[in-house]
Amino acid sequence: MTTTHPKNPTTHPKNPTTNPSSVIRTRFAVRFLHAMKKLNKKTPPSRRYHTIRAAACASMASAVGPRRAWSRAILRKIRARTLHDHLIHKSRNHRLITRRKSAGLRGNPRDQEEVGFRQEDDLRGLVPGGEGMGFCRLLSETAHYIKCLRAQVQVMTNILDHYSSS
Amino acid sequence: MLNSVRFARNFGEYRVASLSKPSSHFRNLDFRRNCASRLTMEPKAEATQPHFRSGEMGFGLDEIHSLISGPPETGRNSFTALLELPPPQAVQLLVKEDFPAKHLPPPIFPSNIGLIDRASKRSFFASADNPPASNTILLASSSMKVEIVKQEPTDSQPHPNSASPAVSDQSPKSGKRKEREKKVKESNKKSKKVVANEASEDGGKKLPYVHVRARRGQATDSHSLAERARREKINARMKLLQELVPGCNKISGTAMVLDEIINHVQALQRQVEFLSMRLAAVNPRIDFNLDALLAAESGSSIDNDYMGMFTPTIWPEGQINGNRQLEYQQLWQGDELRQPGWSREEDTPNFITPETSHLSYDSSANSAPLHSSQLKMEL
């Protein structure tokens, strides 16, 4: 992974991997494997893909923590969804969701003119929780999100390799 | 400090600074901000004088003190800004102020008047520490500074160059303050500088103001300054993103870079989906043979630390069987993981390779159910 972090794991004898990306990778791997184990017992093969994908996102978000806006957004979505599923109170969830959306659309219109309508909206749609931030914050969230996505892909690839090999 | 807040509110500042403790740096910013905003709204200046006069009588002359002892360019800016004031107005301002120590030397030149006025104004917003006796001395010396400033307007130039690279560094990091500055005389060269460098030192307290000065030949009204600061922040973040996304360095232009970034994010998300699909397909035949997984993963990308963190807690447990204890272990370790999770795990490097080798050795030696349960507990 091309990290922008200055610490190089190989040159640091004491702390081999303390750069934040590996920390996140560790946390994500642990949680993801946890979730996978649970999933393995419960779900039928039909819905497995969806549940695994959701578990990947959820474990990534919880590994990152509530510090980042996008992880908070994912966790909120998950909690809202579980609420919806368990309580079947659609009205409450819809209210929550619509309120969030309306709050999010106060993005700075000047930014759009500056940069390009399409791109900023696309980016907002891609990054979770991107609706409710200014452009500047959106960019930093995107940067962190990209880093974490990369870590996620690496971990999942590793897991897959080990399973397919063994 | 509350008075300065009130003053700031009067002048319609962007954000109210959370003023915690007074320091010379902060006071520098304070009076600069005050003077700047005051100059932008001159007609209101007299009207608002009584506001800060009322509460800030006893305020010491730390402002003036720091004016002298502080970085020279700050003084220069404020002085040159003040020089723009027509003398009668300056005198008017001066006269209106209730100066705590009335033993001012009579101003001789208009510049001195403006200078003293500015210095005295600043004193209102300092924390009342210094005795007013120091006022005269500071004023006298500050008057001298004005002469120097007038003679050498070019001096203001070299400072910002060193500081302008700091803008992009500082702005995303440290506490920011925003300041509006009125356009100085055309002859004076302005400089781009971030005073947040100095100002954010005080106790590491984050203040929401960015001090930005306009470059030469650029508009200096508050809106364009604010926009420019924002644009610089955005450009800094875009640069970060460019480094992050491969192949973006060569592309110039925000739109293209954003396109690349969007494509990259989409590609990564698609990759995650694809991998999860493959995992879903592969899963049924896997019983999560964790020892091989952990060993290999520790070798490749994931560090050994977390494994080392868990193993010392596991081995003392001895032989543990039964689901309940297994789940208890998992839960406990989950909590343990979660707690250092939100903050950096600094202690993990302590447990490294000896434990992992121990683990692998033991895992191979033990009976299958035991070792698998132990490995499950690790997770």
From TrEMBL, chain A:
Domain of life: Eukaryota
GO biological process assignments: regulation of DNA-templated transcription
Keywords of this entry: Transcription, Transcription regulation
Chain spans, region Disordered: 1-22
Pfam families with a match to the protein in the record: IBH1_N
Biased composition (Low complexity): 1-20
Domain IBH1-like N-terminal: 22-81
Classification via InterPro entries: IBH1-like, IBH1_N
Identification of the protein by name: Transcription factor IBH1-like
UniProtKB/TrEMBL annotation, chain B:
Polar residues compositional bias, start-end: 154-172, 350-379
Region Disordered, annotated ranges: 150-206, 339-379
Domain BHLH as annotated: residue spans: 218-268
Source species, domain of life: Eukaryota
GO molecular function: DNA-binding transcription factor activity; protein dimerization activity
Cellular compartments annotated: Nucleus
SUPFAM superfamilies reported in the protein's UniProt record: HLH, helix-loop-helix DNA-binding domain
GO cellular component term of the entry, any: nucleus
Family annotation (PANTHER family): STEROL REGULATORY ELEMENT-BINDING PROTEIN, TRANSCRIPTION FACTOR BHLH48-RELATED
Descriptive protein name: Transcription factor bHLH48-like isoform X1
Organism: Sesamum indicum (Oriental sesame)
Gene name per UniProt: LOC105159713
